[in-house]
Amino acid sequence: MSRSLVFLPLALAMSMTLPLLPAQAQSQAQADADSRTAITVLAPRARTTERSGTTGAPIQTITTQSIVYVDDLDLRTPAGRAEMKNRIEVAAKDACSWLDEVYPMAEPPGTGQCTAEAIKRTQDQVNTLLASYGG
């Protein structure tokens, strides 16, 4: 029996299982990320309640989000809470900067309106998280 015939079944079996490995690894990585304590920063670009002056059509809200992991912080301490606040602010600024680049005409860049709104939208999550730490 030739060598190639011996290895053919083994190669075929391996080729059928290899495509599954990245998906399984990705699923585990996603499960690990889902179980981490995090705050979702949602940066808005426009309001849905307004209507375009020219067409009368509703203006869509365009958003982007960032995940701020805080499971490495001791939120019972002032330093841990300050670091969480800092991470949220940085994520909000980064998300709004991205929106400024991608949708530059929607809002004048640098007004801080987007960042302030993104930070404000995290407040319920922050309050819920801090309540679970006793404060």
Sequence of strands across the biggest β-sheet: 1-2
Rg over alpha carbons: 24 Å
The coarse overall form would be elongated
What share of residues are in beta strands? 5-15%
- The total number of structural domains is 2
Helix content: 40-55%
Query: Mean of the pLDDT scores?
Result: 76
Number of helices: 5
Taking pLDDT < 50 over at least 5 consecutive residues as the criterion, the unreliable ranges are 4-8, 10-21
Distance between the termini: 74 Å
Task: Count the beta strands.
Answer: 2
Order of helices and strands: HHEEHHH
Biggest sheet, in brief?
2 strands, antiparallel
SSE class:
mainly alpha
Oligomeric state, counting identical vs distinct chains: single chain
Task: Kindly summarize this structure in a few lines.
With 135 residues, this protein is mostly helical.
